[in-house]
Specification:
Blueprint (H helix, E strand, L loop, with lengths): L2 E4 H6 L1 H8 L4 E5 L2 E6 L2 H8 L5 H6 L25
Parallel strand pairs: 1-2
Antiparallel strand pairs: 2-3
Amino acid sequence: MTTTISSREFNQDLGRAKKAAQDGPVIITDRGQPAHVLLSIEEYQRLTGPPMSIIEMLAMDGADDCGDLEIPIRREFPRAADLS
């Protein structure tokens, strides 16, 4: 169940918003327009999946297919800093 509250209501009654987030997303409006969503940590983790290490990310299918990355060779040397 989705609950919608104004940012003013959110600031005045955080406990109510946290309780409502246990039943579903809480949409927080700013001047009548949706601005933020409050989720329980369980729902957030369900949506984002388990955290991955850099090793797991690199092992993913397609991780080595990053396109053609061309790094130009610099032929000039950087100038010395003028500290005068």
